[in-house]
Amino acid sequence: MKTAFISISLASFILSANALVGSSWSVTNVPSTGLTDITFPLTIVEADHISGYYFAQQFGFVNSSIGYTGLQPRPDADGKPVLHAVFSSFIDGSTTTDKNCAAGADGGPGVSCSFEWNGVYGRRYDLEVKFNGSSVWVGTVIDTVTGARIHIGSYTVPTNAGGIQSSQAGFVEWYPWNSYEPPNHCALLPYQKTIFGNPYTTHLLSVGTQSPSYEYGDCVGQVAFQTVEVLGGVENNCGFKGMTGM
Ligand SMILES: *[C@@H]1O[C@H](CO)[C@@H](O)[C@H](O)[C@H]1NC(C)=O
Ligand SMILES: *[C@@H]1O[C@H](CO)[C@@H](O)[C@H](O)[C@H]1NC(C)=O
């Protein structure tokens, strides 16, 4: 059955070996055709200003594969913090004409879009994924302090893909370990603390909930992981101050 096949392939994404922390989300009252918009609040409460962490939310398209949106720290530039926002599709046959986007996602089919700006640590950014009414899905970062809308990118998915499904999961990953894991790597994990906020949508009577985070992957029990429910979402932290992952 097609649906069964899709859930198995999603499970393999969620259980990708090197992610550290997962956190499921769900939205009530989603029509069978899926949502045409969903927004994921995300706050990087604390993380070193270095590349390596990816704080992401996955979303699934009805009758199709998944996409991600999320944030990654970057080294400061000219004394100012820099955040890297990601918006991607893993659906084979996705296309784009957006200057922030390119073909391919994590070495497989799809489209990846990214944009860097002087994002502020400790500030909540709302990552909006929205169908724009003429076949294009648009990823936008909303700055919840200034109200600014920052364009990440846009893509078109094949016509058999419907809207966004009612549940999926976010994750925290230290991505340099996807290509090389140093000896005793878990003890080298840099510290991070993030809040995955409850997702929301403009769809009538739909309410989003983020579930408590959990550990998975090959460092379970070794990275000082903690999770706690906070107003509007779920906070998690892991890793060790002063470490660089190497
Ligand atoms: C998903 O696939 C089923 C079975 O082919 C079909 O009936 C349904 O209309 C599709 N949904 C969307 C949103 O395309
Ligand atoms: C949707 O996005 C595409 C690509 O940016 C654009 O050409 C089109 O005009 C947009 N449609 C609407 C309704 O905004």
UniProtKB/TrEMBL annotation:
Q: Does the keyword Signal apply?
A: yes
Signal peptide positions are 1-19
Keywords from the named record: Signal
Q: Which domain of life is it from?
A: Eukaryota
Q: What is this protein called?
A: Beta-glucan synthesis-associated
User: Which species is this UniProt entry from?
Assistant: Mycena sanguinolenta
